[in-house]
FAM65 N-terminal domain-containing protein (Etheostoma spectabile), 140 residues
Amino acid sequence: MVKAYTGSQGSKEARESLAEANKGYKEYTENMCVLESELENQLGEFHIKMKGLAGFARLCAGDQYEIFMKYGRQRWKLRGRIEINGKQVWDSEEMVFVPLVSEFLSVKVTELKSLANHVVVGSVSCETKDLFAALPQTVA
C-alpha cells in the first residue's frame, strides 16, 4: 500500500492514506516483534556441548584449535588441543544460548599455528529452527 500511495499523485487523500499505511505497518511490525520475543521466551534454553572435532586425517597430536560460535549477539569461543593419545581437550565444553527464532548459528574452526599464522579450517552457518527439540541432538 505504501508503494502504491508513494507512486500516486500528491493529493491530500493519497497523503492521508500513505500516513495511515505507514502507521499500520509500524504497528504490525511492533506486534510481530512482541510475538517473536514471547515465542523465544517459551522455547527455554539452547544447550551446546562440544564433543570434539571430526577429521581423522587432519587431527595430529599437538595441534591446537579455536572454535568461534556466533548466535545473534551471543558468542562462544573455545580452544582445544589434540593430545598424543588422540584425545581432545577443550577449555570449556558447554554453553547455554538463549534461543532466537530468526538468527543463524555460525561456527568457525581455526587451527592455531605459531606466531599468528592461523589457518581457518572451515566455517558454516545454519538455521536453528530444525534444532529445537525436547531431546538432545547430535550435529556434525
Summary: Residues 1-43 form one domain. The two ends are 45 Å apart (CA to CA).
